[in-house]
Every structure is written in structure tokens, then in C-alpha cells.
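User: Can you recover a sequence for this backbone? Please restate the input before giving your answer.

Assistant: Of course. Working from this structure:
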């Protein structure tokens, strides 16, 4: 049986603008506890919303997004990993 994947329905597009990537992790393929993992690069970013609660005072609500980019090999992981680091450094220099 082939493991080839085929898109059966294209029901949505999702566009995300990441302004401050954090926690950047690159990883090779492998197997852990019987689960197979592909090459990938993942990173997190978050939004923090502060609001004033009448009973408790100022409360911060953090929404975290984790993005995982599946890669073909270690070289692709490295290239994407380096690009995200450069993007983060640029964002920090601008702000």
C-alpha cells in the first residue's frame, strides 16, 4: 500500500503573518515510541492581550501559535531554520 497523499478537497486557505517568531527548533526525521517524524522546522509566536477585569484588575491573555514546516531533508531544515532566525533578528532590530 502506497503512503502517497492526495488532496481530496481544498476547502480553505490560511495566511499567517508572523511578526516575532520565538522558540525556533529544527529537527531531523526519526522514530520515537513507534511514531515516525519527518524533517521539520517549527517555531512559536504569540499575541498578548491585556484587559481590565473589574474584580481582578489587569489580566493578560496570551494566544500561542506553533507552526511546523515539513522539510524534505536536513539541508532544507537548516535553510528554513536560518531564515527564521534572520527574520527574528530583523524584527528585533526594527522594534
Amino acid at each position: 500500500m502506497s503512503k502517497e497523499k492526495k488532496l481530496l478537497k481544498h476547502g480553505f486557505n490560511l495566511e499567517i503573518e508572523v511578526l516575532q517568531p520565538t522558540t525556533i527548533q529544527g529537527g531531523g526525521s526519526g522514530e520515537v515510541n513507534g511514531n515516525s517524524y519527518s524533517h521539520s522546522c517549527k517555531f512559536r509566536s504569540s499575541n498578548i492581550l491585556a484587559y481590565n477585569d473589574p474584580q481582578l484588575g489587569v489580566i493578560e491573555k496570551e494566544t500561542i501559535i506553533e507552526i511546523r514546516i515539513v522539510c524534505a531533508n536536513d539541508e532544507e531544515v537548516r535553510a528554513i531554520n536560518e531564515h527564521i532566525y534572520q527574520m527574528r533578528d530583523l524584527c528585533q532590530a526594527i522594534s
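That completes the design. Residues 74-94 form the longest helix (21 residues).
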